[in-house]
Amino acid sequence: MQAPPILARVLRGGRVESVHRGNAAAVTAAGRLFAAAGAPSERVYLRSAAKPFQAMPLLEAGGERVFRLASADIAVMCSSHGGEPRHVEAARRLLAKGGFAERDLACGAHWPMHEPSARRLRSRGKRPGALHNNCSGKHAGLLLACRLYGFSSRDYWRPSHPIQREVLQRVAQWTGVPASRIEIAVDGCSLPVYRLPLTSLALAYGRLASPEAGDVAARILRAMWERPAMMAGSGRFTTALISVGSGRWVGKEGAEGVYAMGLTPGVAGRHAVGIAFKIEDGGTRARDAVSLALLQRLDAMSPSARRALRLWRMPVLRNARGLRVGRIEADAGAFRAAR
Fold it and tell me: Which residue pairs, CB below 8 angstroms and at least 24 apart, start in 118-127?
């Protein structure tokens, strides 16, 4: 197998110390692959990039009206949040709307990704709970869906559970891959995780950003645009990207170096476009810079957007003393028009 192209270089002392390789795909909402790097059909686990589609069964069944969901609620269901107090409380409120509590979450606990929030917990002698898990909003939304559909919430995280079969059908619908051909494993939060071609993930985000996507997709997009801080949090790239986009695009990270973006019509051509890529080694330190390099390669970023996101375009590397010792440079040169 040919190695994927280099998507980023790590420089120290002006010389390349390491490289990050990966594959990328850009697909229109109509399904046309028009730009790619490496092997765009390589299968990847979607990880948290699947979250907007995992929230769809609840919204399609009228969950926004039944549970009086606001944009912050919908955004946190689609998020990989930092475990800040606002995220924890939003997930707690979602649970309460369905008569659930933190003990009902099957995602497990980890320290907040937002370091100040983690430090505050430690300083108070407290341990993180399941609500601090970056996936707690998604899990809370699935529990509400169980309540709305009349499903037992017991083992809601298993692939055989009816709510997971509902989710699988949405993933199949939006990615264009039949459910029978979607490979399933276990995600970091214990839910099913889907393995699909990178082009299929790009297609799903292109469709999500299309005006023809329907009311539920439009509501999810509006929630992301109205409450970007609930999608990731303070100092996080996804929150900054969505904020700067001002309704022109959305982005969503997934673990192991996955990222997906949906661009509305007119941003990178006449049609809505989805972009998806995966850093081969699973690292995340170059992921944000690669996202911006791909957008710039498609001429999708205005000068003002580039300025606003400059901190993520060429991340600085610092040592334990805080001294600047290097930088990360993204390379989208291999991302070219598809043949």
Answer: 118/83
Query: How far from 278 is each of 49, 93, 275, CA to CA, in Å?
Result: 11, 34, 11
CB atoms within 10 A of CB 101: 11
What's the confidence (pLDDT) of residue 2? 84
Encoded tokens for 63: 């969950």
What are the φ/ψ torsions at residue 82 (nearest 5 degrees)? -90, 0
For residue 2, give the DSSP letter: P
Q: CATH: 2.40.128, 3.40.710, 3.40.30, 3.40.50. Which one for 6-337? A: 3.40.710
Q: Are 52 and 208 in contact (CB under 8 A)?
A: yes
**Phi and psi, residue 10, nearest 5°:** -105, 120
The mean per-residue pLDDT over the stretch 229-251 comes to: 97
Average pLDDT over residues 17-22: 98
- Mean pLDDT, to the nearest integer, of 231-245? 97
Instruction: Give the pTM.
Output: 0.96
Which whole-number Å values give the CA distances from 156 to 25, 147, 163, 267, 280, in the listed order? 33, 11, 7, 39, 31
| Closest C-alpha to 167, from 296, 308, 39, 60 | 60
Does pLDDT of 1 surpass 80? no
Residue ranges with strand state E in the chain: 6-12, 15-28, 33-37, 43-45, 183-186, 192-197, 249-254, 258-263, 273-279, 316-318, 324-330, 336-337
Place of tokens 């409120």: 93
* Run of H or E residues at 147: helix 136-149
